[in-house]
Amino acid sequence: MNAIDKLIDKIKQTQNPTVMGLDPRYEMLPNPIKQKYQGSVEKICEGIWEYNQTLMDSVEDIIPAIKPQMAFYEMFGIEGIKCFKKTCQYAKEKGMLVIVDAKRGDIGSTATGYSNAYLGKTSMGEFQEAFVDVDFLTVNPYLGSDGIKPFIEDCKKYDKGIFVLVKTSNPSAGELQDLKLENGTTIYETVGNLVEIWGEELRGENGYSSVAAVVGATYPEQLQTLRKQMPHTFFLIPGYGAQGGKAEDIALGFDENGIGGIINNSRGLMCAYKSERWKDEFSEEEYAKATHAEAIRMRDELNQAIRRK
User: Fold this and answer.
1) Number of domains into which the chain is organized
2) Residue-wise pLDDT tens digits, 99-141
3) Across residues 168-185, what is the average pLDDT?
4) Structural domain span for residue 242
5) Fewer beta carbons within 10 angstroms: which end of the chain, N or C?
6) The domain that contains 176 carries what CATH number?
């Protein structure tokens, strides 16, 4: 099945357009985890693995996908990479989809190498092996189409998908992405048009392509513009919660049928036990229960906003 159809089906099944970001910075870990695992990188990574596993267990029937951010695993070296692989494998065993946030982008054989690592298989003579089994990878389009084509080829070959950076949620995004070209369009609109073209051969039964886009919730007007401009492109929408994106803003990225996007929440779910909303109800030891409660609250808030749109 087409990768984006798998994701849409899972969203419909859980009635929840949410992806849980797993960005395990040490300072975010609850004290019980820190106290149990300390003294070495290996121990810390064991703690991160337990944290990830427990959080996935708490939301497996509520949230359709996870999104590990590679930077927070790579910084721990080989032990971090092992933890990343275990996290992805466990999510798949639980029936959750995996979106890897690595923002890879390069040209020619290097782009092919990145794509083989996450979406395809690495060839070693007659022997081929996948580094890790994931469903989607975020990619950077700013080297042009020859930096994207290898990823698209693996998407076709292995029923995988990519999320191309179009309009990101960070404060300085507009320094480049909002610049206007001679024809009057912005850079982000131009990239959006390219994504629609790149995805033509990978459109699924729901009308959306497995060549998808990252479009931030922190710029609702641009989100609404791109939804109209990119009718066949599914959106990964960061910026909800801690970055200021509101449910009513996010709803602008969805179509008249209530589909078209999945909303990322990392800190808000991982650290729900620290939030003003839940800190008096759940102890640090009950961090997974707080995540479960926040996942339900977020799901209901988003669905209500999307229905009102």
Assistant:
1) 1
2) 999 999 898 889 999 999 999 987 766 667 778 899 999 999 9
3) 90
4) 3-308
5) N
6) 3.20.20.70
Query: Can you give the length of the chain in residues?
Result: 309
Place of tokens 């923002």: 103
Q: What is the mean pLDDT of residues 26-41?
A: 92
pTM of the full predicted structure?
0.95
Better-scored residue on pLDDT, 109 or 288 = 288
Active site residues: 103
For residue 168, the one-letter residue type is T
| CA pair distance 73, 243, nearest whole angstrom | 22
Distance CA 114, CA 166 (A): 20
In contact, 288 and 57? CB cutoff 8 Å: yes
- Give me the amino acid identity at 165: L
Give ∠ CA 251-257-258 in degrees, rounded to 5.
Answer: 30
CA distance 73 to 52: 12
Token digits of residue 177: 């992405």
